[in-house]
Amino acid sequence: MERSDSENLNTNLGSDQSGFASSRSETTGFGDAPSTTDQGGIAGRAKSVATTVKQKASNIPSMLADGLEAGAQALRQNKLGLTTTDGSTAAASSDSSITAVTDTLATGMQSSADWLRDADLDKLKSGVEKQVKEHPARSLLVALGAGYLIGKALRR
Fold first, then answer.
1. Are 41 and 35 in contact (CB under 8 A)?
2. What pTM was computed for the model?
3. Which of 10, 47, 52, 71 has the most C-beta neighbours closer than 10 Å?
4. pLDDT digits (tens, 9 = 90+) for 134-145
5. Rounded Cα gap, residues 20 and 35, in angstroms
6. What is the rounded distance in angstroms from the CA atom of residue 12 to the CA atom of residue 10?
7. In the chain, which ranges are continuous DSSP H helix?
């Protein structure tokens, strides 16, 4: 009879666990003192990684706001001239609809940047959690719809 894949996996895990158990008695690499428990070291490393991730995540809104603000400024600066592929500037048509759309887009980008800078993300998180707890079915449908639309947008 042949052995199934799950049996091979179980035997492999068993040998890995014995290797892990023996590694707990090894030295830490800082002097000759053996490590009494690796749990403190692992927990310390996990806290360090979590702190680093939290710091980087807290910088994301400001980075997004800076990008939106730079884009809005670029739109406002270039609303009267269009840059061609060779770097020269050509005069845009005097179509007021293009100017209106550019102004609206730049204003929206600027207001989004301001909102990102001023938003209290903890308050936003608690508001979303409250909505999910009070209306779970509606929240699920919104999440499914948003996921579908994002998936469609990313496939193109």
1. yes
2. 0.46
3. 71
4. 999 999 999 999
5. 13
6. 5
7. 5-23, 38-77, 96-118, 121-134, 136-155
